Amino acid sequence: MNISATRYAALHRKIDLRLLPYLFVLYVVAYLDRVNVSFAASGLTQSLGFSSSVFGLGAGMFFAGYVLCEVPSNLILRRVGARLWIARIMVTWGLVACGMALVHAAWSFHTLRFLLGVAEAGFLPGIIYYLTLWYPQKRRARAVALFMAATPVAGIVGAPLSGLLLGMDGLWDVEGWRWMFVLEGIPAVLLGFSVLWFLPDGPAGAHWLTNPEREALASELAGSPEEEHGSWRSALAALARDGRVWTLSAAYFSLCVGMYGLVMWMPTIIGEILGPQAGPMHVGLLAAIPYLGGVLGMVLVGRNSDRTGERRWHTAGPLFVSAAGFLLSIAPMGQWLGEDLGPWWSLGCFTMSTVGLWGMLGPFWTIPTGFLSGAAAAGGVALINSIGNVGGFAGPALVGVVRDATGSHVMGFLFIALVMILGGCAVLAATKKGR
């Protein structure tokens, strides 16, 4: 079908406006329920006597459940359709997120965090696969980046919001962290039911597209890898033989080690730097600053990657930048600058790390969907995300163990920086010429 570039641009603006803001909101809520435990660390320690190791393990347990259920969840989504399965994911994770208010001991904390991961498994790779049904390869990095910008925005909004809700401590004799879990979990349940009405399974079910628009979109996507189909069993067998998948999984592992090693401990570290005079709202406001850097990095890197068509260094480079932020954060500069400027040095380093962490996400996910097809596109994205998210368990747990052993996070952050450097090298290896 012949269609002008202007009409294609208008069609994609229509798709952007209809899908991306809604998916963005869904992911804001998902990510907030995933990481709001970082703001509950102080309350859990005071109320239940959790050590750094207990908290770090609990923060990471989410990813144990997430990894175990990620691939099957994403393959079920491909069979039953995005609308039904994403609705299921959101309702169940919202209920478990509310249930976090019932934590009363280490075992219940770890169990509920594990179940939260089980409930949310499949959401992120499912949405990334879903976007391949709407966007051709050349437009995808921008779409993925705009969607995934929800994660730093969740931090920008969620950090002060969580601080505000923690201020409800004592209302009706209930601790503030319990209020936070309930009030931040309810929106996921409500939005889950809205998915059944709002989200089509694909272009064919989108009543807001005209028949010529559906035909134009099908023409644009025709011949792309996503149009090929096959058995998901044979697809997974092929994935197991593709070294690029495993190398990219290692790269994504390094990203998750850094991302969750930082965000799960950042409010605690900021609170320790500021001292006991800093309240939850103060800590929450400052913790939002690095997430602003994440938004900036994600949008600028994703946009420039699409403009130039370059993916390799737009993915590896931000990992190196983030590693530099971790290394600089443990340098003694904060001590030399004194009490007034020391906290700002730490925040600047954390922001440098988040620019890299989120900046690489858009270009990264265009790499596997560029060489995988059909069932392999669904299974491959889920496999990379699953293996990579083991890093979400390792990062927070490692920092917790190091803090208990040494009284500081320094050695933990040093290890994270080294892992991220190796991750950048893995990206370069997976995308070297001829692969």
Q: Helix content range of the residues, please? A: over 70%
Quaternary structure annotation: single chain
Structural class: mainly alpha
Largest sheet: none
State the end-to-end CA separation.
33 Å
Structural description of this entry:
This protein is mostly helical. The protein has a single domain (10-215, 231-430), classed as Up-down Bundle (Growth Hormone, Chain: A). It contains 21 helices and no strands. Helix 4 packs antiparallel against helix 9. The longest helix has 31 residues, at 5-35. The two termini are 33 Å apart. The model is unreliable at 225-229 (pLDDT under 50).
What is the secondary structure topology, with strand pairs?
Blueprint: H1 5-35, H2 41-48, H3 52-80, H4 82-99, H5 106-120, H6 123-132, H7 137-148, H8 150-166, H9 176-198, H10 211-221, H11 232-240, H12 243-263, H13 266-274, H14 280-308, H15 312-329, H16 333-359, H17 361-366, H18 368-371, H19 374-388, H20 390-406, H21 410-430
Helix pairs in contact: 1-4, 1-7, 1-8, 1-9, 3-4, 3-5, 3-19, 3-20, 4-5, 4-6, 4-9, 6-19, 7-14, 8-14, 11-19, 12-16, 12-19, 12-20, 12-21, 13-14, 13-16, 14-16, 15-16, 15-21, 20-21
Describe this protein with a few key phrases.
mainly alpha; Growth Hormone, Chain: A; globular; 435 residues; 0% strand
